[in-house]
Amino acid sequence: MELRWDLTPLYPSFTSDAFQNDLQTVTAELAALKERYTWSHVHDPAAEMTSYLLDLSALTSRMVLLQGYAGLTFQADTTNEAAMRYVDQLDMLMTELTEPTVKFRRYLTTLRDLEGLLNTSPFLMEHSFLIKDQLEKASYMLSDREEVLLALL
């Protein structure tokens, strides 16, 4: 008995408008995320962190769909060159998240009262585990440049 996955609930094909539009959207959202969140002059930390987490969530949700479709298509047919190209392309896009992640972690280390800041917002309280985890990981980071280089490996 041959089993076939039906991936059309994700995307009809790699050439479909839905897949191509999501790929373009992810690329644009990633560029915007990297440009917007430098964390150098933050006037309202709670608002900026909320905005960053919402933007990051939207980006990664769309990215997971794209990666799921490309990865499952490739797993079902390892000779599918288009699937292989998209898996590689999406992996490279994911590594580009390293730079904004590193900047966010460094920013967290500059906050004097993170717990107090988290308590100012129900949204931040809901995401406090993630935020505190990022702060903990900041203590193990290399330089920004080294972190980005490691992500490329």
Label the structural class.
mainly alpha
Which H/E pattern describes the elements? HHHHHHHH
Distance between the termini: 40 Å
Give a count of the beta strands, DSSP E runs of length 2 or more.
Answer: 0
Gross morphology is: elongated
List keywords for this structure.
153 residues
Description:
This protein is mainly alpha-helical and 153 residues long. It has helices at 17-36, 45-76, 81-95, 98-110, 114-118, 122-126, 128-138, 144-152. α1 (17-36) packs antiparallel against α2, α2 runs antiparallel to α3 (81-95) and α4 (98-110) packs across α7. The chain is elongated. The mean pLDDT is 93.
In summary, what is this structure?
The chain has 153 residues and is mainly alpha-helical. It is 72% helix and 0% strand.
Topology summary:
Blueprint: H1 17-36, H2 45-76, H3 81-95, H4 98-110, H5 114-118, H6 122-126, H7 128-138, H8 144-152
